[in-house]
């Protein structure tokens, strides 16, 4: 008597394979949706390390003249404080949009006697010159990328799937900004408000994603806390 064998006829049923493929499709869609959801949280974003005043003071900056001068960054804010934008990439239309935002504060900053500066991490072709219509303050070169530290943070391909980046891009595009792809653009930048003398860092905004602009009201609130140095305070 022959032993009974398992009935494998279900393997010939096309509906079985259809169901299997459907299950795989649902699983793949679920995994993709979960990955997209996680990419749009801050879970995998590198956390910024706050920059101490002593760290910022010692940064070497260069002027962008034909015969550049190297100086310590503290010169920028020693007397009257300063607002400083660490530009991620001058050719980026998102950076140009944020620069134009900051420039809208220039009349108020001038009234308060607080200068507005920018630093870039490289000088590529005419990128800095082409950035100046959007940022009319002085621009300096930070070759060692210290203003992007103490711990440099990068956003790579994750930026392509973050809804915030798409929103920032749409907002900048709608505002009429355009750009190019020249230069390094993955190291994230930020904006600082630094008080005069040893007053310290009053605001430190670090980009968490491409096009993450600083809150202008927060900048003004921080600027109003700056106490300009007097001859007496400089001697003390």
In short, what is this structure?
It contains eight helices and seven strands, in the order ααβββααβαβαββαα. With 236 residues, the chain is α/β, with parallel strands linked by helices. Belongs to the peroxiredoxin-like PRXL2 family. PRXL2A subfamily.
Could you characterize what this model shows?
By secondary structure, this protein is α/β, with parallel strands linked by helices. A hairpin with a 7-residue loop joins β1 and β2. About 2% of the residues have low confidence.
Shape: globular
Which residues form runs of ≥5 with pLDDT under 50? 32-36
Strand order, sheet with most strands: 5-4-3-6-7
Structure class: alpha/beta
Topology:
Elements: H1 14-39, H2 53-57, E1 60-62, E2 70-72, E3 82-86, H3 93-103, H4 106-112, E4 116-120, H5 127-131, E5 138-141, H6 163-174, E6 190-194, E7 201-206, H7 216-223, H8 231-235
Parallel strand pairs: 3-4, 4-5
Antiparallel strand pairs: 1-2, 3-6, 6-7
Kindly list the characteristics that best describe this protein.
236 residues, alpha/beta, five-stranded mixed sheet, 8 helices, 7 strands, 33% helix, membrane, cytoplasm
């Amino acid at each position: 008597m022959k032993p009974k064998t398992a009935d494998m006829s279900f393997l010939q049923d096309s509906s079985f394979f259809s169901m299997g493929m459907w299950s795989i499709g649902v699983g793949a869609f679920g995994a993709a949706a979960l990955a997209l959801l996680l990419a749009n949280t801050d879970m995998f974003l590198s956390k910024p390390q706050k920059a101490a005043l002593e760290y910022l003071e010692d940064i070497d900056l260069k002027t962008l003249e034909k015969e550049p001068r190297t100086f310590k960054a503290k010169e920028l804010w020693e007397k009257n404080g300063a607002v400083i934008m660490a530009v991620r990439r001058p050719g980026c239309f998102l950076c140009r949009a944020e620069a134009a935002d900051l420039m809208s504060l220039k009349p108020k900053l001038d009234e308060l006697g607080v200068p507005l500066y920018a630093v870039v991490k490289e000088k590529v072709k005419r990128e800095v010159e082409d950035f100046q219509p959007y940022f009319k303050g002085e621009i300096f070169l930070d070759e060692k990328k210290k203003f992007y530290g103490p711990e440099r943070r990068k956003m790579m391909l994750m930026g392509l799937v973050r809804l915030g980046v798409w929103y920032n891009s749409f907002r900048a595009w709608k505002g009429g900004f355009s750009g190019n792809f020249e230069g390094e653009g993955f190291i994230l930048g930020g904006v600082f408000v630094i008080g005069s003398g040893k007053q310290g860092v009053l605001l430190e905004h670090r980009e968490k994603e491409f096009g993450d602009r600083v809150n202008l009201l927060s900048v003004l609130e921080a600027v109003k806390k700056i106490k300009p140095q007097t001859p007496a305070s400089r001697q003390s």
